[in-house]
């Protein structure tokens, strides 16, 4: 019997393959139900115009009850975006990946939210505690307890 996680991921992947993704979001690789890769590009006028970034989603057996581990990764010469909520190791401080996660959110919804987060950014800079965080960060961003207090960038 398939788990809730594998059924949900298979459904989302089928929808992505049949319906496609929103403009600026592209599924790059999803060979299994454990790790998926997307590129996201901010559309329209923004600080990131013309830039594309790679996102990695890692799913465990508790998805969609708990959030996937999502981070920007360096691949094909791409870096993590310079953004006040994105650490240089690619970890993302976003409440929807933490305490505001909801099982109704989908992988595509997370991509759209991160695309919007980048699109509304007013200043390219790293989080103030970037160096300290990166030195001590766990490999899995889900093991970090971020403090969400700034939704103005």
Automatic annotation (TrEMBL):
Q: Which Gene3D superfamilies match?
A: Ubiquitin Conjugating Enzyme
Reply yes or no: does the keyword Heme apply: no
State the InterPro entries in the record. Answer: Ub_conjugating_enzyme, UBC, UBQ-conjugating_enzyme/RWD
UniProt cross-references to CDD domains, sorted A to Z: UBCc_UBE2W (cd23808)
Start and end residues of each stretch annotated as Disordered: 134-153
| Name used for this protein in its record | UBC core domain-containing protein
Matches recorded under SUPFAM superfamilies: UBC-like (SSF54495)
Keyword ATP-binding included in the entry's annotation: no
Q: Keyword annotations for this protein?
A: Ubl conjugation pathway
Which species does this protein come from?
Amanita muscaria (strain Koide BX008)
List residues of the UBC core domain: 4-153
Organism's domain of life? Answer: Eukaryota
One family name in Pfam for this protein: UQ_con
